[in-house]
C-alpha cells in the first residue's frame, strides 16, 4: 500500500462536511478510505503481524470473537492512518470539549498528544485488529484505557458485507439524559471507515448543548468472517 496515497486520501476527504455530520449525528462515514488490496493486507496481518496481546472476547463477557492489539512499532499503514487522521479530528474534539465545558484541549499533531499519554503512564498502543466468525458479536462498549481519552476514534471494515459475511452490522447507541437511548446502524462497505465518539458528544438543545453518552458494538454475524481495523488515538495504561 502506497503511504502517500493513503495520506492523500485522508487529506482529500471533505473534512468540513464530515465535521458537520459528526456534529449532527455523532458518527460519519469515510467511504473508500482503504482499497480492497489494502484491506486484504491488513486481514493477512491478523495472522502474521506483531501484537502486544490477544483478547478472546467470550472470556471477558465482551461478546464472541477475538481481537489483537498491535505492538509498537505499528505496521506502516496503521501508523500512517492514525497520524494522518488525527490533525483533522483534533479541532473537532476541541470544539466539542468547548461545547461540553470540558477544559482539555488537544495538540494539533498526534506525536504531541502521544507524549501527553506517555507522561500519564499510558504507553501501550491501542490500534487493534478484530476477527468475527459466524454467531460472533461485540457487546456495546467504550474504548477507555486511562484518564487520557481522545474523544473520537475510527473503525475500518476490512471485509465485504454480503460476500465475506452477513449480519455483523456496526451499531452505536446514544444515551441521552432523562430520555430513552437512540440506536444507530452504520452501513459500511469494505474499506469504509466510521468516525465516532468514544464516550461523549455534545448535542445542541433548546437551552444550550448537553452531553450524550455513546457506546458502540457489532451485531451478531449470520455467516462468514468479518475483520475490522480499529484506530484509537490514546495509548493505554
Ligand atoms: O468490529 C467493529 O466494527 C468494532 C470495532 C471496535 O470496537 C473498535 O474499533 O473499537
Ligand atoms: Fe471498540
Automatic annotation (TrEMBL):
Which InterPro entries does the record cross-reference, listed alphabetically? DUF2086, Oxoglu/Fe-dep_dioxygenase_dom
UniProt keyword annotation of Oxidoreductase present: yes
Q: What is this protein called?
A: Proline hydroxylase
Q: Which organism is it from?
A: Oleomonas cavernae
Q: What are the Fe2OG dioxygenase domain coordinates in residue numbering?
A: 123-236
Which Pfam family would be a valid example here? Oxygenase-NA
Q: Give the family from UniProt.
A: Belongs to the iron/ascorbate-dependent oxidoreductase family.
Which UniProt keywords are present, listed alphabetically?
A: Iron, Metal-binding, Oxidoreductase
What GO annotations for molecular function exist for this entry?
metal ion binding; oxidoreductase activity
Q: What Gene3D superfamilies does the annotation carry?
A: q2cbj1_9rhob like domain
Amino acid at each position: 500500500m502506497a503511504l502517500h496515497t493513503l495520506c492523500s486520501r485522508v487529506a482529500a476527504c471533505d473534512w468540513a462536511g464530515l465535521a458537520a455530520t459528526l456534529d449532527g449525528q455523532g458518527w460519519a462515514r469515510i467511504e473508500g478510505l482503504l482499497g480492497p488490496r489494502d484491506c486484504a493486507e491488513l486481514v493477512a496481518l491478523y495472522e502474521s503481524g506483531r501484537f502486544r496481546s490477544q483478547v478472546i472476547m467470550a472470556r471477558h463477557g465482551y461478546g464472541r470473537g477475538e481481537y489483537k492489539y498491535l505492538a509498537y512499532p505499528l505496521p506502516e499503514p496503521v501508523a500512517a492512518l492514525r497520524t494522518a487522521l488525527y490533525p483533522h479530528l483534533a479541532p473537532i474534539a476541541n470544539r466539542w470539549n468547548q461545547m461540553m465545558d470540558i477544559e482539555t484541549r488537544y495538540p494539533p499533531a498526534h506525536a504531541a498528544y502521544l507524549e501527553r499519554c506517555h507522561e500519564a503512564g499510558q504507553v501501550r498502543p491501542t490500534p487493534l485488529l478484530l476477527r468475527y466468525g459466524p454467531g460472533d458479536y461485540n457487546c456495546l462498549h467504550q474504548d477507555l484505557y486511562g484518564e487520557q481519552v481522545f474523544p473520537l476514534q475510527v473503525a475500518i471494515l476490512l471485509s465485504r458485507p454480503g460476500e465475506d459475511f452477513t449480519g455483523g452490522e456496526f451499531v452505536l447507541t446514544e444515551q441521552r439524559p432523562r430520555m430513552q437511548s437512540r440506536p444507530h446502524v452504520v452501513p459500511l462497505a469494505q474499506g469504509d471507515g466510521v468516525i465516532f465518539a468514544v464516550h461523549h458528544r455534545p448535542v445542541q438543545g433548546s437551552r444550550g448543548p448537553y452531553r450524550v453518552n455513546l457506546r458502540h458494538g457489532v451485531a451478531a454475524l449470520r455467516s462468514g468472517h468479518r475483520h475490522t481495523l480499529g484506530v484509537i488515538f490514546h495509548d493505554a495504561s
